[in-house]
Amino acid sequence: LPPELITVTPSMLKAHNGRKGRDAWTSYQGKVYNISPYLPFHPGGKGELLRGAGKDSGKLFMEVHPWVNWDGMLGECLVGILVSENDKTN
Ligand code: HEM
After folding, report:
1. What's this model's pTM, rounded to 2 decimal places?
2. Ligand 1 pocket test target in 25, 29, 63, 65 with most atoms within 8 Å of CB
3. DSSP state letters, the chain
4. What is the predicted ipTM?
5. pLDDT averaged over every residue in the chain
6. Ligand 1, atom nearest to 35 Cα
7. Ligand 1 and 27: CB distance under 6 A
8. End-to-end CA separation in angstroms for the chain
């Protein structure tokens, strides 16, 4: 794993729900992204994007716009990879 990326457990993901001054994270295809910087730019609005905050957005994303290039747009917002609760390495 590149040093700038971290392993993220489901409980860490859940904690980053965009509330209490915390950034909003979401997972997609096993990777975790910070979606907060993108909120003001999302063409579907903040509220729609925040539906995925603190959890996996894969299903919602594919329901709405499977043609959108997620990694191309949010590559810089990659936080790390999702691991199971017991596999946290840092
Ligand atoms: C547009 C919802 C995640 C990029 C939209 C629209 C909705 C929506 C409802 C349509 C807006 C309209 O036509 O008025 C959601 C939901 C998401 C999500 C529920 C996840 C919880 C994302 C993410 C990205 C993204 C992560 C970027 C990687 C876009 C783009 C459009 C769009 C580019 C315009 C698409 C087009 O018109 O072809 N979104 N979005 N969205 N969203 Fe999302």
Report:
1. 0.93
2. 65
3. --TT-EEE-HHHHHH-BS-TTPPBEEEETTEEEE-GGGGGG-TT-HHHHGGGTTSB-HHHHHHH-TTS-HHHHHGGGEEEEE--GGG---
4. 0.90
5. 96
6. 26
7. no
8. 11
